[in-house]
Design brief:
126 residues; 11 strands; mainly beta; 48% strand; 0% helix; 4-stranded antiparallel beta sheet
Length: 126
C-alpha cells in the first residue's frame, strides 16, 4: 500500500520540543519533495515547510522560521520536522505530503501533491 504515515505528535508545554516523522511505504521517497502542513482547530490548513528530494533546498513559513527544522533521511525513506520553542499557536494536526519532482521542487502549497498522510496531532499547552 502506497502511503505516508506521520508520528511523533503529542502534548508539550510552551517552549518545548517535538520531532515529527513522515514515513513512506510502498514507494521510494527520494524521488519526491516533502511538504509539511498544519491545521489548527477552526482554521484552514496552512503550509509550514518543504524540502526538496535530495534535501538541498528547504523553505519555511515566516511564522515558524528559526524554530522548526525540516530534514530527511532517504536511506530510511523518512522525513522529519524538528519543532523547538513551541508556542500555543503551533497547536494543530500536522500533515506531511509528497510531490514528485526534481531537486528544485519544494512545494509551498498543497495543490497537486501525490501523497498525503493522515496527520499527527500536536498540542502545545501548559
Amino acid at each position: 500500500q502506497l502511503q505516508l504515515v506521520e508520528s511523533g505528535g503529542g502534548l508539550v508545554q510552551p517552549g518545548g520540543s517535538l520531532r515529527l516523522s513522515c514515513a513512506a511505504s510502498g514507494f521510494t521517497l527520494d524521488a519526491y519533495a516533502i511538504g509539511w502542513f498544519r491545521q489548527a482547530p477552526g482554521k484552514v490548513r496552512e503550509w509550514v515547510s518543504c524540502i526538496s528530494s535530495s534535501g538541498g533546498r528547504t523553505k519555511y513559513a515566516e511564522s515558524v522560521k528559526g524554530r522548526l527544522t525540516i530534514s530527511r533521511d532517504n536511506a530510511e525513506n523518512t522525513g522529519y520536522l524538528l519543532m523547538n520553542s513551541l508556542k500555543s499557536e503551533d497547536t494543530g494536526v500536522y500533515y506531511c505530503a509528497a510531490l514528485w519532482g526534481n531537486d528544485k521542487t519544494c512545494p509551498t502549497g498543497g495543490y497537486g501533491m501525490n501523497y498525503w498522510g493522515k496527520g499527527t496531532e500536536v498540542t502545545v499547552s501548559s
